[in-house]
Design goal:
This protein is α/β, with parallel strands linked by helices. It is built from 15 helices and 10 strands. α3 packs parallel to α5, α3 packs across α13 and α8 runs parallel beside α9. The longest helix is centred in the last third of the chain and has 30 residues.
């Protein structure tokens, strides 16, 4: 079985490795996004049935497949997102540990989001948090918030780790519950509002640590959520690629929602959107031969560049529509660049 007898092939993840200095998810993600000028998050969903034939006989095939993808794309991404079920189903949890250790060692500037979608309370939630943050050493995790605030509180005991709460997911069946009207508003809007409300005011929010999962397949809902939470909350956005989400519509919806929020400023208009746009299968399985990692890199590069173009188009649309009046008027009047340093990311794409 793929999870067995891999000690010789996989780097050791000993206690010295686990004792590495704490990492700050928000700082890592924002710096990676700005430094590498990217919003791309590559999802790591390893399916052995789709691996290249030359990996089939390896006991460490799951690790080796993902490691090759990571090393080929690390300069194009702002995060990696391994999906825990793809490893657990192969009894390859040790390979997941080794993979995250490899990312921290070889690409320490790139954060890791463990896609676990946990949702429980009390001691069980605390144990899930230990699994994610001690065993796997993830920088952030996805959670289901539908058991309420006491299912989120144990995770907040881990300083500097990020939490992404399921809000408006990319699957069609998400509408069954997430779109139900509660006090005249859809349930996903209540989740977003609680995530944006500080703990001290009865919400679930901790600035720069709590974000939301919002699917690219529902741009209207994405725009409404962004308007509720403001331009700075990180949104993890699946649904691009195999699920059919449109990049331009996604970026446009995010910026429209940001503009509708009372806290929107000229600096926000010039900054990269606070988004991590995930693509998994379209990148992982772009090739099926021995050069699969290079073909994955090509697909990731195309996706990153398509995101960049969508951001450029959105900025131009903002200027055309007069949203950034300060920028437009300053340029027209010949004044110096009105975009304050260091908030030039969106205009540099």
């Amino acid at each position: 079985m793929l999870g067995q007898n891999v000690q010789m092939a996989i780097p050791n993840t000993n206690s010295a490795t686990r004792a590495a200095p704490e990492r700050n998810f928000s700082a890592l993600w924002r710096e990676a996004s700005r430094a590498q000028q990217t919003l791309l998050c590559v999802g790591l969903d390893p399916d052995p049935a789709r691996f290249p034939p030359h990996l089939a006989a390896r006991d460490d095939a799951v690790f080796e497949f993902c490691r090759a993808i990571v090393d080929a794309t690390a300069d194009l991404v702002c995060a990696f997102k391994p999906q825990i079920a793809y490893f657990a189903a192969q009894a390859a949890e040790d390979q997941l540990e080794a993979l995250i250790a490899h990312i921290h060692r070889a690409h320490p500037h790139i954060p890791v989001i463990l896609d676990a979608k946990r949702g429980d309370i009390g001691a069980t939630a605390s144990l899930y948090a230990r699994e994610a943050f001690e065993r796997y050493r993830a920088d952030a995790v996805t959670l289901s918030p539908y058991m309420g605030g006491d299912s989120i509180a144990p995770w907040l005991e881990w300083p500097d780790r990020g939490l992404f709460l399921l809000c408006r997911t990319s699957n069609p069946g998400g509408s069954d519950l997430q779109s139900l009207l509660v006090e005249g508003r859809p349930l996903y809007a209540h989740v977003a509002e609680r995530a944006a409300t500080p703990l001290s005011a009865g919400g679930w929010g901790v600035a720069e640590r709590v974000g939301l999962v919002v699917g690219a397949t529902f741009p209207d809902e994405l725009s409404r959520i962004r308007a509720l939470v403001g331009p700075q909350m990180p949104l993890l956005i699946p649904g691009i690629g195999a699920q059919g989400g449109d990049l331009r519509a996604t970026i446009g919806a995010d910026r429209a929602g940001s503009r509708a929020h009372a806290a929107f400023t000229l600096a926000d208009a010039a900054e990269l959107p606070s988004c991590l746009i995930n693509s998994s299968r379209a990148i992982l399985y772009a090739g099926s031969g021995e050069n699969f990692a290079q073909e994955a890199r090509t697909a990731a590069l195309e996706t990153r560049d398509a995101i960049r173009q969508a951001v450029r188009d959105a900025v131009r649309d903002d200027i055309r529509d007069g949203v950034r009046d300060g920028v437009r008027d300053a340029i027209r009047d010949g004044n110096q660049d009105p975009i304050p340093e260091p908030n030039r990311a969106a205009t540099k794409l």
